[in-house]
Structures are given as structure tokens and as C-alpha cells.
């Protein structure tokens, strides 16, 4: 019995009731992708980036949910113990459904990153992370309902919780104030 109270399910219901053909996973990926480029946390520019996925003007409840999602991501990326909670279906959802959401999350991340990464110079490591995400976005068909499928899914999920942090730390994390060169 899927958990209908999970944040994922609730958000999915909210989006579909607003007529938005997008998964929470893809939106969360989009948000994290743009955040990792240093796009910042201005609500209007986030809503503008989200608009092309939503395909329709969001009602207030959807706008508020998107802004809440951004606040959550901002807290995760800028907090002391940087941890990212992926917005994906709960463990009780069928593996195929979770794998599809994982692929959507990766596509969203790559879109969000791509929309905002113009002019950024990426390290080899950062490029490899993006290639990994592109590969993972194709993986959902390969995961089968089995013990191995479950463990593969968990491994990929763990990687996705770390990968954005590498990009964020490299590209977006504000440098410590002491390191600023003096302007005199």
C-alpha cells in the first residue's frame, strides 16, 4: 500500500490537480541543478525556470509549494550538515516507479544546470558528474524488481545525494569572506 502521505505523493497530487504534467522528482532535480550553478535562490527566477516544466501558470498553492521546495533546498545546500533529501517516491512504491522518478530527477537536474550554466568553467570532476547524471537518466529501464535492482537503486540514490554537493561546492558555494581580495 503506497504511502499517500509522503511529501512526494502529496506534491504529485498537487501538481496533477493543477494540470501540470510534471513529476515532483523532475522539479526537484531542476531546482537543484540550477542551484548548483550558483543561480541563487531568488523565487521569481526559480518560478520562471519551473514554468517551462509546468506548462501552465501555477495556482497559488503550487507556487507556494515550489517556493517551499526552494527554501528546503536552500537550507540543505547552505546548512551546516549539508545533506540532500531527494524528492522521490517512497521505498514502498514499486521499483519501476522509483526508477522512472530517478530518471526524471536526473533530467530535471541537467535541464536546470544547463539553463543556468552559461559561462561556467567546469572541472573534469564536475563534467564527469554531469555525464554520470546523463547516464543515470537513461537507467530506469535497466532496473528490475529484484534484490539486485533494489541495491542498484539504493546505490544510485546515494550517489545522487552526493553529486549535487560536489557541483555546488565547486561552482556555487560562496567563498569565505576572508578570502576576498581587497579593492584598495
From TrEMBL:
One of its GO terms (cellular component) is cytosol. Pfam families: UPF0149 (PF03695). Belongs to the UPF0149 family. Transmembrane segments: none annotated. This is UPF0149 protein G3O07_02135. HAMAP family: UPF0149.
Amino acid at each position: 500500500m503506497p504511502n499517500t502521505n509522503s511529501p512526494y505523493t502529496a506534491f504529485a497530487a498537487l501538481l496533477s490537480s493543477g494540470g501540470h504534467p510534471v513529476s515532483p522528482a523532475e522539479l526537484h532535480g531542476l531546482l537543484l541543478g540550477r542551484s548548483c550553478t550558483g543561480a541563487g535562490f531568488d523565487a521569481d527566477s526559480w518560478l520562471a525556470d519551473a514554468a517551462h516544466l509546468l506548462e501552465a501558470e501555477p495556482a497559488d498553492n503550487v507556487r507556494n509549494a515550489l517556493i517551499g521546495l526552494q527554501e528546503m533546498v536552500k537550507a540543505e545546500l547552505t546548512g551546516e550538515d549539508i545533506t540532500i533529501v531527494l524528492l522521490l517516491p517512497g521505498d514502498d512504491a514499486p521499483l519501476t516507479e522509483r526508477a522512472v522518478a530517478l530518471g526524471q530527477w536526473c533530467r530535471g537536474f541537467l535541464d536546470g544546470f544547463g539553463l543556468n550554466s552559461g559561462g561556467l568553467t567546469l572541472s573534469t570532476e564536475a563534467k564527469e558528474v554531469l555525464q554520470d547524471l546523463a547516464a543515470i537518466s537513461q537507467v530506469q529501464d535497466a532496473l528490475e524488481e529484484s534484490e539486485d535492482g533494489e541495491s542498484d537503486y539504493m546505490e544510485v540514490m546515494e550517489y545522487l545525494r552526493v553529486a549535487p554537493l560536489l557541483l555546488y561546492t565547486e561552482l556555487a558555494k560562496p567563498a569565505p569572506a576572508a578570502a576576498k581580495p581587497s579593492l584598495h
